[in-house]
Write a structure and sequence with these properties.
Blueprint (H helix, E strand, L loop, with lengths): L7 E4 L11 H10 L7 H10 L1 H5 L5 H9 L5 H14 L5 H12 L4 E5 L3 H8 L2 H6 L2 E4 H4 L6 H11 L6 E5 L2 H9 L3 E4 L4 H7 L3
Parallel strand pairs: 1-2, 1-4, 2-3, 4-5
Helix pairs in contact: 1-5, 2-4
Length: 203
């Protein structure tokens, strides 16, 4: 369900505005981590198993990568890992950006709600599109919790200064959309079609 005339939009980053990493990027991160190329699936499993705590800011960069690697990286290696990791998650979809510009031109508050570790949150905040389009951004690492925890959504709602029933939430994960609906928001499960997002907002 979507509101006929939403008054604000809360938007996920990765998988909506943010483009998913390419296979080559995963290969680069695997190599940077020192894992053999034929063990990339095991590397990804180790990466994701530790990611929730990292996104929530309950472990540091060094602790995250020590967990993934099984050994503590040197300061130089840690810098390389952080740079490669952050680069994977900062690319954007020009088609979605075009829709977001139309949202802002219509005067609607636009709030980013993303599960992101501190370094990625800083990189997103430094981007030109973040400064141009979003009235506020809410990141898991700064909250100490991740979606789909309702408290994260409450922070984003407060930033919109809009009643939940007049807010459209957009995310590529069904569980995140389900929580938004439980809190009274309307939700759009984004599957990569920017025209669907525009239609949901009658743009």
């Amino acid at each position: 369900m979507k509101p006929s005339n939403p008054s604000a939009v809360v938007l996920d980053f990765n998988g909506v505005l943010g483009v998913q990493p390419t296979a080559a990027m995963w290969e680069n991160l695997t190599a940077t981590a020192g894992w053999p190329a034929d063990q990339s699936d095991y590397f990804k499993a180790a990466f994701w198993n530790a990611r929730d705590a990292y996104d929530a800011g309950t472990i540091t960069d060094a602790e995250f990568w020590t967990t993934v690697l099984g050994t503590e990286p040197t300061p130089r290696h840690l810098d390389e890992l952080r740079a490669a990791d952050t680069a994977m998650w900062t690319r954007t979809d020009d088609r979605v950006l075009a829709v977001l510009r139309r949202i802002r031109e219509a005067g609607l508050p636009l709030v980013l709600l993303s599960n992101a570790p501190s370094m990625l949150a800083d990189a997103l905040d430094d981007s030109s599109w973040r400064r141009e389009l979003f009235t506020e951004a809410v990141y898991s690492a700064r909250l100490g919790l991740c979606k789909p925890d309702p408290a994260a959504y409450q922070q984003a709602l407060a930033a919109t200064r809009t009643a939940p029933e007049h807010v459209l939430f957009v995310d590529d994960r069904l569980d995140n959309c389900a929580t938004a609906r439980e809190l009274g928001m309307h939700a759009l499960h984004f599957t990569g079609d920017a025209t669907e997002l525009a239609a949901a907002l009658a743009l």
